[in-house]
Amino acid sequence: MGDRKVGKSKKYDDEAEDVTEGKPAEGGKLKSKDYAAELKRLHVELVKLQEWVRSKGVKICIIFEGRDGAGKGGTIKAMTARVSPRIFRVVALPAPTEREKSQMYIQRYLPHLPAGGEIVIFDRSWYNRAGVERVMGFCTEEVAKRFLSIAPFVEKAIVESGVILLKYWLEVSPEEQTKRLEARIDDGRKIWKLSPMDLKSYTRWDDYTKARDDMFQATDTSWAPWFVARSDDKRRARLNIIEHILSKIPYKDVPREKVKLPKRHVKASKDGDYAHKFIPERH
To answer: Total structural domains in the chain?
Structure first.
């Protein structure tokens, strides 16, 4: 087993998938080098945002919602690839415990809200109640509707406490969702992304559409509006979302002192005197 070679499949390769999947947007497919160059530029801006948030003690909360396979995880990875996890914290809560089920619904989310100098990204949030819980029958219609009536006031309190709150819905087409979920079935890197609940949810496209529209109707407020990103083209979606986030936050470049490495002394023997246990170099 240890000697088994790991092959590459163009169909399921992450990079190949990102290039080829989805309907071509206007202007055709986004070339790898163009995507990389634009993402690098945005990463520089995200680092500037990070330093501004740290120096000013700003609190930012970003919510990502959408159907299974909409590209939430990939967008979050693209955002956080070059920033500090101490400033950019990603929150992806598991199913609630029995104790948490007995609490006030919003209670388990509140401890994860940002303190000064933090950016918290929710990979799914309290809106689970308006989506999967409602559609799959984990809560009653009455409970879901009560949540929708209360959520705007909770979010108003969050915003009035000084948090910049941004909410994004990634919109994927049924055809593209099918393609992405099918790609998870035989790919050893992605099988963990496809749960029995995902398969049940897959059959209820129209129910999720109604739940989404009800959610927008009730919680798309002036203080916490919903922003929708078309995500059939993953790469363009990631760039567009990051660009939009940056446009909604009034960050500035924080001046930094010029860095110069000091001199140091290094022995002639680079490995020292200890007999290190080096791993096999198979690559």
So the answer is: 1
**Residue 116: CATH number of its domain:** 3.40.50.300
Is there a domain that residue 200 lies in? yes
Whole-model pTM over 0.85: yes
Statement: residue 31 has pLDDT above 50: yes
Average pLDDT over residues 105-122: 97
The pLDDT, as a whole number, for residue 269 is: 63
Q: Does residue 210 register a pLDDT over 80?
A: yes
Supply 215's token pair: 């959610």
Share of the chain above pLDDT 90, in %: 79
What's the domain range around 116? 38-247
